[in-house]
Write a structure and sequence with these properties.
single chain
Length: 164
């Protein structure tokens, strides 16, 4: 198991994602525990990009419940129909919010968060089992590049834990 990542800070996010993904695959592929892999994924994304908040919400009953994360304290439970995470859950699609203050029903877990990207996680039978949530202190910090690359991270986790 790797104890560190070999990442060079770059203003080019694609290059950072391209360097991160194979290393993350190597770290996660040797571990069978979901929580350990979610925790290492958040740590790796935090190290690579230093976003304000990176974490997972997992479906438990009829709500999203906080899982492993990096960053300030977070909302513990989110109803399926509330906020950006709830929107990604109900639509089953990734969402990028350039300005969270303009998103109807946004849940302000941290007043520092200004933009957000959320990627749904699917089981083998195409049910949403959770979401990856990433918040930034900068407005309009996420683009289609982040969606595509974070979906690769989520597909890796799905392959290891949700498609068996």
């Amino acid at each position: 198991m790797a104890e560190s990542l070999n990442l060079t800070k770059s203003k080019d996010r694609i290059s950072t994602y391209e360097a991160l993904l194979p290393q993350l695959d190597g770290v996660l592929s040797g571990e069978t525990d979901l929580i350990a892999n979610l925790a290492n994924t958040t740590a790796a994304l935090k190290q690579a990009f230093d976003f304000l908040w990176i974490g997972f919400y997992l479906v438990k009953g009829n709500e999203l419940v906080l899982g492993p994360f990096q960053g300030p304290l977070a909302c513990t439970r989110i109803a399926f129909h509330r906020g950006v995470c709830g929107h990604a859950y109900t639509t089953q699609k990734p969402i990028v919010v350039a300005n969270v203050n303009e998103f109807p029903g946004h849940i302000a877990c941290s007043s520092l968060a200004q933009s957000e990207v959320v990627i749904p996680i699917f089981s083998k039978n195409k049910k949403v089992v959770g979401v990856l949530d990433v918040d930034s202190i900068h407005l309009n910090d996420f683009s289609e590049v982040d969606v595509v690359e974070l979906e690769k991270v989520v597909r890796l986790l799905e392959r290891l834990h949700f498609r068996a």
